[in-house]
Known about the structure:
Elements (H helix, E strand, L loop, with lengths): L15 H21 L5 H16 L7 H20 L11 H40 L8 E5 L3 E7 H4 L11 H12 L4 E8 L13 H18 L7 E5 L12 H7 L1 E10 L8
Amino acid sequence: MSRRKQETDNNNHERWLVSYADFITLLFAFFVVMYSVSSVNESKFRVLSHSLVSSFKDPTQTLDPLQVSQLSRVGHQLALHQQSIPFTIANPPIQLASISSINNGAIDISHSRNNAATDGREELDIIADNLKDVLDLLADEDQIQLKRNKDSVEIEINSSVLFGSGSSNLASEANTVLSALADTLKHLPNRINVEGFTDNLPIKNQIFPSNWELSAARAATVVRLFSEYGVEPSRMASIGYGEHRPIASNDSTDGRALNRRIAILVLGSPVTTREPGE
């Protein structure tokens, strides 16, 4: 009996080797690139980068033997280059001159601020001396007092010197006091706050529903008079506190009299203009 010839299988089972070779080639190129980035060589890096980008742009593209040979040669040269030159990480030297200049700048800023603060205090001291000379000629110390605060000069005037009871209309002698103060204040660049205070006795009439309105109206009256005597309006503000910031007990007549007052504060920093809405 004759043997039956075994049929030959014409199917090619080794086609996967082509894809596998492509993958190995790309992987080799990737590691060559990773190895070469430790040394900056623009010409060689450009060749590798171009080859790698071209491969990823077209996944079906395979590297021909010439390209593989070029990559192998470049990788071998890079390896020799890395062996001949020791790899070291050079720390950049600390720029002492730059640090010194920064420190000097910080010192200069601090020094400038200290000088500005010192100049501001000296300016307030001069203002306080000038106002004291004016006030010494005007009224009794019990009615008008000058205080040198940390950031301001405060002139405290008892309301009886300026206003009648429960009124925001200026008394006749008030013009003498306020005009003399205005002659000094109008030459200053500083901001000026005029603050009104009352005792805790309630007031309620058609003009002033409460002590808030009375204190605010009195402060505004002083500001308006200062403006008429030449003090720049943009440097002034009027504030009414009512009975809520007493300096003495409201349980006695004398205490309530002390709480009814007008305070004129000359602030330490010069006025800065600000547009509406800023």
